[in-house]
């Protein structure tokens, strides 16, 4: 950091798209996305990028649907079927855990969405978590999309649908996508790359470059 450099911390919220907690009959992880999100988190922690005189760091919060819809979670009262969207409920009637989750989402500078592809589109857990909160919580902030699948297509069909959802919520997706085919071949269970130089892992830094640029620009105008 130079004498004139300024440290800037972006509040970065990661939405995990899968609530799966069972291993498939053919074997494998109960939730393949755990590898991916650990890799994303460690990449953010190790990252030291700069924009002009700003050195960028990330303060990361993870929104996991297993926790959010579980006992005591911020949306446990509503359920994944979205019985109580927050924008249909007065603020005074919202549970404190829901308000806390809303404040984390609304206070973000940028979002990362780490998601699989279910039936060629957005997993219901992801659309429910994000859809519980109105667009005013997301507007004028950028989003980056990271998808994965056990097969060769890396969840890209879900990425296309997630882009549309983000546009409508107001968290505009950056153009660079990151798609991982077969994460268990690329990452250890703790998210550590098996081959740090693998070409598929080079997508994320480029996505984060765009995300940080957009986050800083939008932050200065909000």
Automatic annotation (TrEMBL):
<dbReference type="InterPro" id="IPR005025">
    <property type="entry name" value="FMN_Rdtase-like_dom"/>
</dbReference>
<feature type="domain" description="NADPH-dependent FMN reductase-like">
    <location>
        <begin position="11"/>
        <end position="176"/>
    </location>
</feature>
<dbReference type="Pfam" id="PF03358">
    <property type="entry name" value="FMN_red"/>
</dbReference>
<dbReference type="InterPro" id="IPR050712">
    <property type="entry name" value="NAD(P)H-dep_reductase"/>
</dbReference>
<dbReference type="InterPro" id="IPR029039">
    <property type="entry name" value="Flavoprotein-like_sf"/>
</dbReference>
<protein>
    <recommendedName>
        <fullName>NADPH-dependent FMN reductase-like domain-containing protein</fullName>
    </recommendedName>
</protein>
